[in-house]
Amino acid sequence: MSVTQPVRSPRRRAPRNSLNADRILDAAIALLDRDGAEAFTMRALAQELGVGTMAVYSHFRGKDEISDAVAQRLMDTIELPRTGTGDPRGELREVCRGVYRLFTEHPSALQLLTIRPLRGDDAIAVIDRMLDLLRRAGLDRTAAARAHVALMQYTVGSALWNTRRARALCEEGVRDRVRAKLDALPADRYPALVSLAPELLCAQDQRTEQYEFGLDGILDGLLGGGRGL
Predict the structure, then answer these.
(1) I want to staple 123 with a disulfide (CB 3.0 to 4.6 A). Which of 15, 118, 135, 228 is the partner?
(2) Using an 8 Å Cβ cutoff, are 109 and 74 in contact?
(3) pLDDT at residue 229, as a whole number
(4) Which InterPro entries does UniProt cross-reference here (predicted)?
(5) Which of 38, 62, 56, 45 is nearest to 11 (CA)?
(6) What architecture does CATH give domain 76-174+211-222?
């Protein structure tokens, strides 16, 4: 017996002359965040918009140009703290939190960062502000450069860890299987892990709080514990 497959409704076509660069970038961000960079093609973007592929080419030369424009737009959302507060550590913490928030709210930005270097002025402004704050906090030239790289590695790595873990835990039954596996561990072989399993799971679930806990520890280490700098 044959089974009738449901017919998918065609995506509504966009009104004539309604397409512009802003609409294209909005759709590109939505597509990237939902389906990932691997699924981002000019054809998929045109379907997202409800237009023909050539209509997108009338505004952008290709996928790389759109990717750069998306990265620039997302970097624009990072608000740099007001300068001159006399608290370089606090300002530096806010910059790092802004980068982390961007990468977790828009996984597409994180994917684009690993595929294509960010070339816009806003990315450069973030780097420049972080280096300036590290120098104002008392670090020498070499230490400031190395501290900047360390902070970005931690921030990007934390965002990647948390977004992937959150996506994995959305699958049905995954969280219960993780807890069951921990509960089944022999305490005589893994005493510390068995004892601290509830606290470990709690720390992993508190994604933003956990990131900030680690960020504060790194800043204290890099700046000599100088919260009052």
Answers:
(1) 118
(2) yes
(3) 38
(4) Homeodomain-like_sf, HTH-type_TetR-like_transc_reg, HTH_TetR, Repressor_TetR_C, Tet_transcr_reg_TetR-rel_C_sf
(5) 45
(6) Orthogonal Bundle (1.10)
Residue boundaries of the structural domains of the chain: 21-60, 76-174+211-222
pLDDT digits (tens, 9 = 90+) for 79-108: 888 776 788 999 999 999 999 999 898 887
Of 7, 15, 47, the C-alpha closest to 30 is: 47
Superfamily of domain 21-60: Homeodomain-like (1.10.10.60)
Structure tokens at 135: 């120098």
3-state secondary structure the chain: CCCCCCCCCCCCCCCCCCCCHHHHHHHHHHHHHHHCHHHCCHHHHHHHHCCCHHHHHCCCCCHHHHHHHHHHHHHHCCCCCCCCCCCHHHHHHHHHHHHHHHHHHCHHHHHHHHHCCCCCHHHHHHHHHHHHHHHHCCCCHHHHHHHHHHHHHHHHHHHHHHHHHHHHHCCCCHHHHHHHHHHCCCCCCCHHHHHHHHHHHHHHHCHHHHHHHHHHHHHHHHCCCCCCC
The reply to whether domains 21-60 and 76-174+211-222 share a CATH topology is no
- pLDDT score at 116: 64
Kindly report, residue by residue over 124-146, the tens digit of the pLDDT.
888 999 999 999 999 999 999 99
HSE-up of residue 213 (Cα within 13 Å, Cβ side): 7
pTM equals 0.77
What tens digit of pLDDT does each residue of 119-129 get?
656 678 889 99
